[in-house]
Amino acid sequence: MTTQDPKKILKQKHELDEQKSEFTEFARKQSGHTEMEAGQEFGHDRVPDDQNRMKSVENRQSGR
Length: 64
Hints:
The chain has 64 residues and is mostly helical.
């Protein structure tokens, strides 16, 4: 059984997070999107999904 050093694992995670951040920044620049505030990742102009709406109705009815 191999044991892994938690500090080494954490360092690898931080390196991967940095790579993801750099890629996200690059992709946004290429697509013309600017940095977004937290919680603004999704547009509010989407049409609600019928299946989700019906599930919400079902959940409300079963809660009574």
